[in-house]
Amino acid sequence: MKYNKLYYLLVFLSIILVTASCVEEADLIQVDPNVNTEGSFWKTDEDALKGVNAAYGSLLTDGTYMRSTPLLLDLKGDDTRSQSPWGAMFNVGRFNSSVSDAAIYGWAFETYYQGIYRANQVLENVPEIEMDQALKDRIIGQAHFMRGLFFMHAVKLFKSVPLPTDNSEIYSAQKSNEEGWAQIISDFQIASEMLPTSYTSVSGLDAGQVGRATKGAALAYLAKAYLFTQDFPNARDNFKKVIDLNVYSLVADYRDNFTDANENNSESVFEVQFSRDAGGVDLGWGGAPASGWGKTSARAITYGPRGFGWTDVQPTQSLFNDFHIEKTVNDEVDPRLDATMFYNKPGGMMLYGQDFATFYGGNQQDLNDLFCRKYQNSDGGQPDEFDWRSGINERIMRYADVLLMYAESLNETGATGNAYQYIQMVRDRVNLPDLETTKPGMTQQEMRDQIAHERLLEFALEGHRFDDIRRWGWLQNSSKVDWLKSRDYEYDTYKAGREYFPIPQLEMDNNPGTIQNEGY
């Protein structure tokens, strides 16, 4: 009996020893079934949709369209100026952002890569999910669109940046500006082939949803990328594809593009969705989303007129003057002026339920000043912007932009005469005279100058002007730089290379081999 007990004990111990020797360290790591991780999350079509929604979410925080990105896009143009007491903002338009202070531009850089990371998660995981193929294609197409959009912002603002197309590496090598545009074009090309014209005719979890990227949006941004790289034939052909979709048209009232009254309208090719009625009441300053975050924007308070917002951004006097160069067919001032800025208008102008001349009458400086009107909740529904919670969607690609960029690509490919009709479509909305009558037979250079003027007035304070100045090569033309200085004193401190922002120091420190942009 004693022998049998000893025998069984040895056998038992041997089994334990053998079993223990087969256990790997990874086998001891248990995933909490009550907590979602990247490894446990991607299971269903609902997970796939939530994943791509997270990429859209990166458009709503402080680094992107809640506040920082409009500032970075607007303030270097000759249509804006800043007297902000905050140095990081004040210096953007003076081409003097500091490497030692990454406020605003560093937040944008970080958030673009957050959006890229989220898009990459979708592209890596959704193909493996068993789900409806059409829905899967739309989600993957949106991920390519969002990644292309974030890459485009990073490349436009920072020139040479990392281009991670998967999340397998902690750090990704810095690439050239040319490589950046090639990746942007690739993403938008794929997106244009996978996305629907609209979501009204699809079935599935995303059926009927407004605000998602469409084929038209992908084609428009693809064409814009070609335009920025001076591939004018491809730009022309893809803008024409957008037009030929026959789903976009200009809204009758120009101001409808900048209020919450007519959002996602027929002119909207792509817009960032904000709402006072969604989520909590806290602003999304950045980082991991919190339960109290809302879906509102701080643009309105940042750009708001004095007494109604912080007045960190204001129109230039030269922009005001440009609206008076040409009268309408009824001998009136271009109506886009009143939709763009507040000023002491003869006959009166209302803002936030107040008469401009009366409200500012006690201060001659303010009475004679200019303030932003686009994207302001100023039609009387709110007394001011000091709750920081604007629900106005940011229209970042309008059909008017497609028409004028198409006209530009026609002109650059030698079809100057054909450009007139697409410019006139934009002019007709605001009742300006027929350009073929007032300026017939323009040369290619004359048409370039005319398109520059048309774009300035149509898109003032919308983040396009400095993009245009840079891509047209004006900063390498001393006479153009002198002209810009005459229009906007902030150009007095422009230095070569400062058309781009510095690579944030944190990126320089953490990503070996990163080279700082010229001029910093």
TrEMBL record:
It is found in: Cell outer membrane. Keywords: Cell outer membrane, Membrane, Signal. It comes from the Bacteria. Its main location: membrane. InterPro entries: SusD-like_N, SusD_RagB_dom, TPR-like_helical_dom_sf. The lineage of its organism: Bacteria, Pseudomonadati, Bacteroidota, Flavobacteriia, Flavobacteriales. Gene3D superfamilies: 1.25.40.390. Residues 96-227 form the SusD-like N-terminal domain. Residues 1-20 form the signal peptide. Residues 267-520 form the RagB/SusD domain. Pfam families: SusD-like_3, SusD_RagB. It comes from Lutibacter oceani. This is Putative outer membrane starch-binding protein. GO terms for cellular component: cell outer membrane. Belongs to the SusD family.
